[in-house]
Amino acid sequence: GNSVTQMEGPVTLSEEAFLTINCTYTATGYPSLFWYVQYPGEGLQLLLKATKADDKGSNKGFEATYRKETTSFHLEKGSVQVSDSAVYFCALRVSFMEGLDTGNQFYFGTGTSLTVIP
Amino acid sequence: DTEVTQTPKHLVMGMTNKKSLKCEQHMGHRAMYWYKQKAKKPPELMFVYSYEKLSINESVPSRFSPECPNSSLLNLHLHALQPEDSALYLCASSPLLPRDSRLSGAFFGQGTRLTVV
Predict the structure, then answer these.
(1) What is the C-alpha separation between A115 and A80, in angstroms, rounded?
(2) What are phi and psi of A43, to 5 degrees?
(3) What are A22-50's pLDDT values in tens digits?
(4) Which positions ≥6 away from B2 have C-beta within 8 Å?
(5) Which of residues 22-61 of B touch A (CB under 8 A)?
(6) Contact B49/B32 with Cβ under 8 angstroms?
(7) Is residue A96 scored above 90 in pLDDT?
(8) Do A43 and B50 count as a contact with CB atoms less than 8 A apart?
(9) Which chain B residues touch A52 with a CB distance below 8 Å?
């Protein structure tokens, strides 16, 4: 089946520390991988994405590489800031290419809460 | 315009009320979604519409009734809800065409914070 396993939180880091949030997946069909960020009281914002093996997504200093051999998509940032405090969700989309009446489904990890302290 | 707009932002309703949540996007996306998110949990898929037809219903109780009147609008009609239905309701959209589908993830709205009293 399709599922996402994400590192449990919460994570607390000091400003300028290195961040890694682990994410692994199982998928059938045509997988694409995403990281979303959710700030308190808000919806989800797409942070970065990768649509094929060895693709690296990057945005705002965050990076993640789609590793097919380890079925992983770990999120990293070299130097976190207080403004990065949020909940981070790893997500998998499996696209079904046959049939017009089949929609895409997104599978979310459980979320990792990050708090960065000055 | 890369926004998904949801209204209202906050809603308080009684268990006997009927209300509707609205969602709108103008990105030409032909897949639209309703998710429910409880505090400190990931979003849970409720419904998926593809080309304005309901393609996925994740065994959602009938007190939630989705509607997709056209390719830009998605509604969620609420009736006889329970206090445990209080949550953040998120709408999302994404492209469906194969030539586009790998270029972006789902775009989410800011959500409607629903409280059932």
Answers:
(1) 10
(2) -80, -170
(3) 999 998 777 788 999 999 888 899 999 98
(4) B27, B107
(5) 31, 33, 40-43, 45, 48-51, 53, 55-56
(6) yes
(7) no
(8) no
(9) 102
C-alpha pair distances (Å), B104 with each of A51, B20, B48, B108: 9, 28, 17, 12
Query: Which helix or strand (DSSP H or E) is residue B99 part of?
Result: helix B98-101
Question: C-alpha angle with apex A20: A9 to B90, nearest 5 degrees?
Answer: 55
Query: What amino acid is encoded at A49 in this protein?
Result: K
Whose CA is closest to B51, among A51, A30, A104, A44? A104
Instruction: Dig out the tokens for B67 from the structure.
Output: 């509607």
Using CB atoms, pick whichever of B42, B102, B105 lies closest to residue A46. Answer: B105
Burial of A37 (0-12, 13-18, 19+ CB in 10 A): buried
User: B102–A103: do the CB atoms touch at under 8 Å?
Assistant: no
Query: Which residues does chain B have within 8 Å of residue A97's beta carbon, measured at their own beta carbons?
Result: 98
How far is residue A89's CA from residue B53's CA, in Å, rounded to a whole number?
28
pLDDT in tens, B29-83: 888 999 999 988 999 999 999 889 998 888 899 999 999 999 999 999 999 999 9
Query: CA nearest A16: which of A87, A86, A82?
Result: A82
Q: Which residues of B touch A93 (CB under 8 A)?
A: 94, 105-106
So what's the pLDDT on residue A102? 40
